[in-house]
UniProtKB/TrEMBL annotation:
It comes from the Bacteria. Keywords: Membrane, Transmembrane, Transmembrane helix, Transport. The keyword Transmembrane helix applies. This is ABC transporter permease. It is a multi-pass membrane protein. It comes from Leucobacter chromiireducens subsp. solipictus. Its main location: membrane. Belongs to the binding-protein-dependent transport system permease family. Residues 41-224 form the ABC transmembrane type-1 domain. PROSITE patterns: ABC_TM1 (PS50928). It is found in: Cell membrane; Membrane. The keyword Transmembrane helix applies.
Length: 236
């Protein structure tokens, strides 16, 4: 084989498209789905969900505390923004001496990137409740906790969902870089395809990452509509 030709993985009898390293060989993609693409896709979903759930729990709690104690908004925001501005690979490198080349390293980094987005989204949502509505709730005898649960959080849902959408899509994209740390997620077949380079594996894994971002974003849109049925009534 001449130097510079693509190194195509040996997965048995190859079609003409595979032999010629076509732009995208659907037959090879379908034949290797269960071994080459599905396991990384599943692990990518798990990595993303864990990071977003933990990031949401931390950022949501911090936002609630900061909302009641406004002096905390700036220091928490500064720390979260600093973590967000760190390049992903640099953050991975900083964490490796402490947590090693493990999924823990990946998850810590991904959580850090979600914090500022969700934190700001929750604060923005809570602040969107008008003073007159809160005064009316106080006049009805509701406690601060009841006002938060029954008035402020429902008004904040649209902003919170939007923040979750941005954080989730960002996590899906950054998680592909995690292949430099662990052989997991869709970044793994992408990285291996780059070193080959075999078009179908690279394009297939990349397309799955994009599709996953769209699907998760769509699911969050549906969740937002389910949590805020009054917005549909108002629009109609």
């Amino acid at each position: 084989m001449p130097v510079g030709d693509p190194v195509i993985p040996d997965y048995g009898v190859a079609s003409e498209c595979v032999v010629n390293n076509g732009f995208f060989c659907a037959d090879w993609f379908a034949a290797q789905w269960s071994t080459v693409f599905w396991p990384p896709l599943l692990s990518h979903i798990v990595i993303t969900v864990i990071a977003v759930v933990i990031g949401f729990a931390i950022a949501f709690t911090a936002a609630l505390i900061a909302y009641r104690r406004q002096w905390l908004v700036k220091p928490i925001g500064v720390v979260a923004t600093f973590l967000y501005t760190l390049p992903p690979l640099a953050l991975f490198q900083l964490l490796v001496p402490f947590t090693g080349l493990t999924l823990v390293t990946v998850e810590i980094a991904l959580v850090c990137f979600t914090l500022v987005i969700i934190f700001q989204a929750v604060l923005t949502g809570l602040a969107s409740t008008s003073a007159s509505v809160i005064q009316a709730a106080v006049g009805m005898g509701l406690s601060p906790g009841q006002i938060l649960r029954r008035v402020e959080l429902p008004f904040a849902f649209p902003a919170i969902i939007n923040g979750l959408r941005i954080a989730t899509v960002l996590t899906v994209s950054i998680a592909t870089i995690a292949a430099f740390v662990v052989d997991d997620g869709l970044g793994s077949p992408i990285l291996k395809a780059i070193s080959s380079p075999f078009n179908t594996q690279f394009i297939g894994a990349g397309a799955l990452a994009v599709l996953l971002a769209f699907v998760l974003d769509g699911l969050l849109v549906l969740l937002g509509r389910a949590l805020t049925p009054w917005t549909r009534v108002r629009m109609s």
